[in-house]
Amino acid sequence: MSTLTFPSPLPSPSEDCEQLHKAFEGWGTNEGLIISVLAHRPAAHRREIRRTYAEIYGEDLLKPLDKELTRDFERAVLLWVLDAAERDAVLANEVVRKWSPGNRVLIEIAVVRKTEELLAAKRAYQARFKRCLEEDVAAHARDEYRKLLVPLVSTYRYEGAEVDMSLSKSEAKILHQKIKDNDCSNEEVIRILTTRSKAQLLATFNDYHNEFGNPINKDLKADPKNEFLSALRAIIRCIICPERYLEKVIRLAICKTGTDEGALSRIITTRAEVDMKQIKDLYYKRNSVALDSAVKKDTSGDFEDFLLALIGHEEA
């Protein structure tokens, strides 16, 4: 559920393009005008704005935005203007080019997104970068991460509600044994986590808890400094409750020394039209502080105004 507000009726795409072009003219860019237009238009309308701008002014809207805006504000606006699939493609490409075992963005894209959304992101990746995502992940990730991430971004998960209860019990036992044996990169563990439907995995995690007395993620914390175990825990959290996982990403982005503006922009631009209300509610429940108040405290200027507009701040 989105908390974004849109004017009714919406201006025409050509009217919005005229306003945006005005914002770029003169000695200084009118960032407030850019925010008032782009932060309050739904995805389909933003797509039409971008198409119409190219028709009228002969260039992709991304070019003047890239030229006129700077730093974190520029990054957030450029992500927001992209279609969801193209946005995920850009984020995934950044990860594979600067590969780090601690980066969880590929897991977010592969697990939080619906199957069709992941497929669309992979198509957009191929169209934009002239390579396939699986190929780039295989080329850049190493060792057990390659074994985990290639099937994770390759799988076309079944999304129905049907569950095989005997399978969930047997695979809970497999997972428990491999975790007990400290063999978490075993192909059976990877096969289960990367190919089973989310409904099936929820049943398996439930059986694991009932049979062995601990949530699976608690047993995977045996070595908190092990990045591969942390990646497995991230996958499981994204399957169990993606909104809770995303709330934690935002919380860590804000709470650590020095705000992680990249993570903040990524989650807010990708979820503003999806489940931002749930994320905001979870943030307040976990921190006793409203998300817009936390963002206001840790950001400034146009970047702050833009993020507040996307998360539905009343005064934005």
Write the layout of secondary structure elements.
Layout: H1 13-24, H2 31-38, H3 43-57, H4 62-68, H5 71-81, H6 84-97, H7 105-112, H8 115-129, H9 133-140, H10 143-154, H11 165-180, H12 187-195, H13 198-212, H14 216-219, H15 227-240, H16 242-255, H17 261-271, H18 276-287, H19 291-298, H20 301-311
Helix pairs in contact: 1-2, 1-3, 4-5, 5-17, 5-20, 6-8, 6-9, 7-15, 9-10, 10-12, 11-13, 15-16, 16-17, 16-18, 19-20
**How confident is the prediction overall: mean pLDDT?**
94
**Rg:** 21 Å
Going by helix content, strand content and strand pairing, the class is mainly alpha
Helical residues, percent = over 70%
Kindly, what is the distance between the CA atoms of the first and last residues, rounded to a whole number of angstroms? 19 Å
Helix-strand sequence: HHHHHHHHHHHHHHHHHHHH
Protein name: Annexin
Family: Belongs to the annexin family.
GO molecular function, one term: phosphatidylserine binding
Keywords: Annexin, Calcium, Calcium/phospholipid-binding, Metal-binding, Repeat
Task: Explain the overall architecture.
The protein has 20 helices and no strands. With 316 residues, it is mainly α. The mean pLDDT is 94.
